[in-house]
């Protein structure tokens, strides 16, 4: 792995942490945060492996106790909270987003990155988050699924932001879109 790759991984891990400074909305057992935007961007911009590594670095810093979650929360205990499924799903979501970016290389960047963010950052993330919320949040699967519907509008905004950001960066600095190289 090159020095450039390590810097990119560290940058996106830091971006996810910085997005934790955006105030969270507590609407139930799992807050609405901006941090999944960073997960989507890591996968879309860095590709599957580097994107997942960026998120794993963020999770390592979280597990070590740094207050990098929205609202200044940190520590290993958050993996056993109602948010735990989402946290565990973060690296898989970034990997999936990066993978979709790679296999849709013939599509324009706006379309490809929107598709990648929707599949990785929403569908895959919910596939981990909803069962985790049910298991760790003492809910039925149906209750967790119903609660997760609260996240959909915000996540669709994050998908659109990811696509616009990826397209804008690719125009100005094409080499920053590692997922396409």
Automatic annotation (TrEMBL):
<comment type="similarity">
    <text>Belongs to the BioY family.</text>
</comment>
<dbReference type="InterPro" id="IPR003784">
    <property type="entry name" value="BioY"/>
</dbReference>
<feature type="transmembrane region" description="Helical">
    <location>
        <begin position="77"/>
        <end position="100"/>
    </location>
</feature>
<keyword id="KW-0812">Transmembrane</keyword>
<keyword id="KW-1003">Cell membrane</keyword>
<dbReference type="GO" id="GO:0005886">
    <property type="term" value="C:plasma membrane"/>
</dbReference>
<dbReference type="Pfam" id="PF02632">
    <property type="entry name" value="BioY"/>
</dbReference>
<keyword id="KW-1133">Transmembrane helix</keyword>
<protein>
    <recommendedName>
        <fullName>Biotin transporter</fullName>
    </recommendedName>
</protein>
<feature type="transmembrane region" description="Helical">
    <location>
        <begin position="107"/>
        <end position="128"/>
    </location>
</feature>
<keyword id="KW-0813">Transport</keyword>
<dbReference type="GO" id="GO:0015225">
    <property type="term" value="F:biotin transmembrane transporter activity"/>
</dbReference>
<feature type="transmembrane region" description="Helical">
    <location>
        <begin position="37"/>
        <end position="65"/>
    </location>
</feature>
<keyword id="KW-0472">Membrane</keyword>
<feature type="transmembrane region" description="Helical">
    <location>
        <begin position="6"/>
        <end position="25"/>
    </location>
</feature>
């Amino acid at each position: 792995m090159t020095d450039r790759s390590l810097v990119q991984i560290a940058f996106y891990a830091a971006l996810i942490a910085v997005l934790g400074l955006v105030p969270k909305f507590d609407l139930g057992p799992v807050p609405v945060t901006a941090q999944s935007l960073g997960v989507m961007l890591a996968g879309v911009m860095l590709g599957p492996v580097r994107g997942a590594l960026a998120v794993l670095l963020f999770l390592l810093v979280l597990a070590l106790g740094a207050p990098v979650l929205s609202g200044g929360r940190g520590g290993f205990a958050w993996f056993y909270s109602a948010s735990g499924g989402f946290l565990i799903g973060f690296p898989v979501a970034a990997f999936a987003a990066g993978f979709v970016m790679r296999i849709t290389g013939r599509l324009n960047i706006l379309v490809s990155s929107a598709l990648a963010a929707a599949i990785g950052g929403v569908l895959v993330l919910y596939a981990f988050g909803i069962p985790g919320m049910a298991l760790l949040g003492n809910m039925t699967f149906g209750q967790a699924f119903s609660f997760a519907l609260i996240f959909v509008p915000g996540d669709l905004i994050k998908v659109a932001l990811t696509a616009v950001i990826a397209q804008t960066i690719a125009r100005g600095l094409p080499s920053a879109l590692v997922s396409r190289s």
